[in-house]
Amino acid sequence: MCNRTIKGSGQSQARVKGFSSKALIKATDSFSEENLIGKYQFGKVFRGEIKGQKVTVKIWETIVDKGVHRFGNEDRLRDEISLLQHPRLLGDPNLVKMIGYCFEGETLGAVYDLDPQDSLHNLAPKDEFNWLQRMKVIYELANLLEFLHTPIPAPHVPYRVGNIDAAHIILDKEYSPKLADFGMTVGGIILSPRALRMRILRERFGYMDTSRAMPWERRNYMGGKDKGGVFEGRDIFGFGCILLCLIHKRVPTLDGAEDDRFVPDYAAQDAYEEYYEETGILNGFSFVHKSLERNMVSLRKMDWNLRSWGWSV
Description:
Elements: E1 17-18, H1 21-27, E2 36-40, E3 43-50, E4 53-60, H2 73-85, E5 98-104, E6 107-112, E7 116-119, H3 120-123, H4 131-149, E8 169-172, E9 177-179, H5 192-195, H6 216-222, H7 230-248, H8 264-279, H9 290-308
Parallel strand pairs: 1-5
Antiparallel strand pairs: 2-3, 3-4, 4-6, 5-6, 7-8, 8-9
Helix pairs in contact: 4-7
């Protein structure tokens, strides 16, 4: 049972403000490259500022990319507004806090009360993103998934994110992760008819368990037929991929030469098989990046010294 305490869980729905497309253009300096954090499954995410307040701005785009059909963005925005205002989720420390939205013409956007450090996708390969910060992300993300997967009273079913992805996680200045996309989320207040529009969607390259990628799984889940926790397993699989990305300092990509492509689960297996072929040793293999291993050694030495003084890290 999840013991997560949510500060806003007893509050009424938070008020969100409607923003014009001009306001979002001004906030992001015309969606400039300097303010672009990165792409996510359904669009782009930007840094912004509104009346002196640092914010994160997410924009939905109507495109089709790599076989992922982008449709129903208006419904996705409506669902996100409902989700992030729901009393059970309001105030969760690892969900973005929505303060506004834009629903004007072809501009669909969300504004979050979040001064962003960067996306997890961008930070994972960087040397300055140290071991303790990475473990903080993993710990808080695990707590969030445990909370979302916790059984809730009928007729609702637990939430399933559906597209766990490093590009969908934005870190604040304290390196605390915030889940910022809910375009494939089902369960909870996402009613069955609304969830059916996602039946042909799939996770992005590198986070998808191909053995559990069948479109009827969402329909079965919303109908209470998720036998064996298959749908929950997809979130856990995505979480495992993020864990591998963080300890190996690489993220899934289709860019560059074929031998430079990275799929976390295959990469771990391939690296182990290569290690075994070279050494003939079954034990002792580590997928942790060497720079992070050195970081871990330094932390152990620090911990030993502090313990000798009666302290601990």
